[in-house]
Predict the structure.
Amino acid sequence: MSREVEQPSLEPAPEGKYVYCIIETDEPRSFGPMGIGGRGDDIYTVRHQGLAAVVSNTPLVVYDPTRENVFAHEQVNETVMREFTVLPMAFGALFRTEDDIVELIRGTYDALRDVLAKMEGKVEFGLKVNWDRDKVTAELEEKDDEIRHLKEQITSRTTGSTYFARMQLGRLIETALTDQADAYIREIYSHLRDVAVASRANKPIGDRMIMNAAFLIERDRETEFDQKVKEIASKYEGKLSFKYSGPWPPYNFVHIRLKLERGEGTTEAVAS
Amino acid sequence: MFLIDDLLLAPVNGFKFILGQIQKMADQELNDDTVIKEQLLELTMRRELDEISDEEFQEREAELFARLRAIKLRQLDLMHEVVHTKDSSSFVIEMGGDEGEFYEPRE
């Protein structure tokens, strides 16, 4: 799950703090024994003038963003999110002491307040849309006259090279597929746009996915958004499969990353 | 003599050049973590679609992270980079989302 950074030694790694997110609270809070690292460290708040970092104790070891570790990070944020608007930290933020955290909050205090106000009452939903590429291709080959014609030509030809005809067919199909995907995407976005505050188009993963988006939604319009997704999903049942998830903290719309003052390196901002 | 030397050495130098290029490409791949990150995403996707078992997933994930770690170790003095203090670091707030708040698919 985690490994020590330095050469193996008998000494245990020194202790530090892992930060999950920033929230607004005047009261000290605890969110249960579910800290990253599997020791059951308590999740608590390190506060500074109405702002607080949600943290747990941890040995100072590097956490790989494995599914298990990312899950621990996200689970804390999702728990905190039930009661607070959260500004998620990028995965893997380790600090030496509470005092270090307070100083960093102090350093960005106004900006943190601004962004928290902006994100107030908003949550994120993810929407991934997959299609069956082969099935769509088969449909295109039937419906599209140009494609069908060319295909017939290739299969009926008994002599001579079909190389260029095949190339052309491949290009035609590729273009037709892209157009078809774009048309679907356009319609899905226009259907959802009125019930969402903002969107973020991420790169699709693998060749079955045509859309990989995140939407920022007002909490009190969640059911409306839900309804709209169901409408569009049922319209394309059998053609497109919708994978819909949330509510999540607004990972795709804001996160806090750490910048090293010395040296040029910065820590990784790992979006989920 | 010059000419003959050049001629004799030419194929050797050419071969060396090719070896050099291959080494360069290999280094690039070894140091490029984006490829591995994409493989990780795809792996997660395949797990979610139940194409591979939990066991296979974990095995492959561990492999990829080992490679990622090797890259990171090469690139930086890890401990120094990873633990932050008030003197070493500051917060940066990064906003995301599509331009103009909403994605405009192309016509």
Summary: The first strand of chain A starts at residue 2 and ends at 3. Helices of chain A lie at 67-81, 98-107, 109-119, 133-143, 145-156, 163-192, 222-235. Chain A touches chain B through 58 residues (CB under 8 Å). Chain A is about 40% helix and 30% strand.
